[in-house]
Write a structure and sequence with these properties.
Blueprint: H1 3-40, H2 43-68, H3 77-84, H4 112-117, H5 124-137, H6 147-151, H7 166-189, H8 200-209, E1 218-219, E2 222-223, H9 227-246, H10 256-283, H11 293-317, H12 319-324, H13 328-341, H14 362-384
Antiparallel strand pairs: 1-2
C-alpha cells in the first residue's frame, strides 16, 4: 500500500535534485568553459588571463570587505564634533557672533596671535556636514561608485538582491541630508536676509555634493571624475567657510525665520522618506525574503543618522533663538527620540505584514520613528511661527 506513495515522493525529490543540479550547472558553465580555455591556451594568454582573474577576485574581495565593516560608525558622533570645537561651548552666542577673547579657546598648536584672530563663533551645522562627508568618503569607501558595485551580481544590481547594498544605502541616506543642508546654507543660512551675495565656499560645497553619486573614472560620456574625489572638495569648502566665519569674514544668519524654513525642509524630507517606506510595505510582505527591504531601511537609517547630527548642531548655531522662544524642552525631546531610534540596528531586515506574529516589520518601525521625529519638528516649527 505504501509503495506508490514512497515511489511518488522519491520521484519528487529526484526532480528537485535534478533541478538544483541543472541550476548549478548553468551557473558554473561559464567558469568551466573558462577553465578549459585557460588550460588549452599558451603561456602568454595564461599570464594575462591570470592577472585579470586575480584582479577581479581581489576587487570583489575588497568590495565584500568594505561593505561589511563600517569604520567609525557611532550614533553619538555629535558629542565628539562638539567636544572638538573651540567655539561651540559659547552657548550665549549663535553662529557668526563675535566672541570675547576668553570664549574662543585656542586650538591645539595655535599661536596666541592666531587664536586672538578667531573671534567669531563657527557654524556647527557646517562642521557636522563636513565631518559626515569625511565619514562617507575618507573614513569609509564610497560604495556606490565602485566598479564592482556598478557591475552587480551577475548583472543584477545589488539593490535588487539581499546582499552587499546596506552600506551603500546608508551612505546615500546621509548624502541626501548633506545635499539638503548645503542648499539651505547657500540659500538662507550663509547670507544676510537673502540680499547679500552667496558665499563662494558654500556654493562650491553644494555643487560638489550635487555630483553624480555613482560616477566612476569612465562614464557614458567618456572620462570623468569619481564621486569620492569630488565630495572631498566639499569637505575642504565647508571647512574653509567655517575658517572664514571664525575670522568674522563670512556670514551666518541665525534668525528665527531661517530656522523655521530649515525645519520645514527637514520635515518635508523626512516625510518623503517615510512615504518610500510605506510604498515598500504595500508592495511586499515577504518578511525576511524581500530583497528591497534592506536598502529602504538603511537609506532611512542613514537619513536619521545624519539629521540627528545636523539638528544637534542646529541647536548650537541657533541657541539664542531656541532659548528666547522657549523651545529647549521640545528640542531636547526631539533629540532624545531621534537618538533612541538609532538604537534599532537589526542584523537582517524583515518586511513582514504588520499583523504578522512571525515576521517583524522593521520598515514599519523605522517609518514610525521617522514620523515621530517629524511630528516633533512640526511642533517646534509651529511654536516658531506664532
Amino acid at each position: 500500500m505504501l509503495d506508490p506513495i514512497v515511489s511518488f515522493f522519491t520521484r519528487i525529490f529526484q526532480w528537485i535534485g535534478r533541478g538544483i543540479g541543472l541550476l548549478i550547472g548553468v551557473l558554473l558553465w561559464p567558469f568551466l568553459w573558462l577553465g578549459r580555455w585557460y588550460i588549452s591556451s599558451g603561456w602568454i594568454l595564461k599570464a594575462v588571463a591570470g592577472v585579470v582573474i586575480v584582479g577581479i577576485v581581489a576587487s570583489y574581495a575588497y568590495f565584500f570587505y568594505v561593505t561589511q565593516f563600517w569604520t567609525n560608525f557611532d550614533p553619538d558622533y555629535p558629542n565628539q564634533i562638539e567636544a572638538a570645537s573651540t567655539t561651540a561651548q559659547a552657548t550665549d552666542a549663535v553662529a557668526g557672533d563675535q566672541l570675547p577673547a576668553s570664549a574662543a579657546a585656542p586650538a591645539a598648536g595655535a599661536t596666541p596671535a592666531a587664536s586672538a584672530a578667531q573671534t567669531c563663533k563657527r557654524s556647527e551645522i557646517a562642521a557636522t556636514a563636513a565631518d559626515l562627508v569625511d565619514f562617507n568618503v575618507n573614513q569609509n569607501a564610497w560604495i556606490s561608485s565602485m566598479l564592482v558595485s556598478k557591475l552587480g551580481f551577475f548583472g543584477i544590481p545589488w539593490r535588487n538582491t539581499p546582499y552587499f547594498d546596506n552600506k551603500a544605502a546608508f551612505q546615500l541616506g546621509i548624502n541626501q541630508v548633506l545635499r539638503r543642508t548645503t542648499t539651505e546654507l547657500v540659500d538662507t543660512l550663509g547670507r544676510a536676509r537673502g540680499t547679500s551675495r552667496i558665499d563662494q565656499n558654500l556654493q562650491d560645497a553644494r555643487t560638489a555634493l550635487a555630483w553624480n553619486e555613482d560616477a566612476w573614472y569612465i562614464g557614458l560620456r567618456g572620462p570623468t571624475r569619481p564621486t569620492p574625489s569630488v565630495y572631498r572638495e566639499a569637505i575642504q569648502k565647508l571647512r574653509s567657510f567655517n575658517a572664514s566665519l571664525e575670522k568674522c569674514d563670512a556670514t551666518f544668519d541665525a534668525r528665527s525665520d531661517n530656522l523655521l524654513a530649515f525645519l520645514d525642509r527637514i520635515a518635508g524630507d523626512i516625510g518623503s522618506t517615510s512615504d518610500i517606506l510605506r510604498s515598500q510595505l504595500e508592495a511586499s510582505d515577504a518578511g525576511w525574503f524581500d530583497p528591497r527591504a534592506d536598502d529602504r531601511f538603511w537609506f532611512a537609517y542613514g537619513q536619521l543618522y545624519a539629521y540627528y547630527g545636523i539638528l544637534s548642531a542646529t541647536s548650537t548655531d541657533f541657541s539664542a533663538v531656541i532659548r528666547e522662544r522657549n523651545i529647549t524642552t521640545l528640542w531636547d525631546t526631539m533629540q532624545v527620540q531621534m537618538r533612541d531610534a538609532l538604537n534599532m540596528q537589526p542584523l537582517i531586515i524583515s518586511n513582514g505584514n504588520e499583523s504578522s506574529s512571525f515576521f517583524p516589520s522593521h520598515l514599519a518601525t523605522m517609518g514610525f520613528n521617522l514620523l515621530r521625529a517629524r511630528s516633533q519638528i512640526v511642533e517646534i516649527r509651529s511654536v516658531l511661527d506664532r
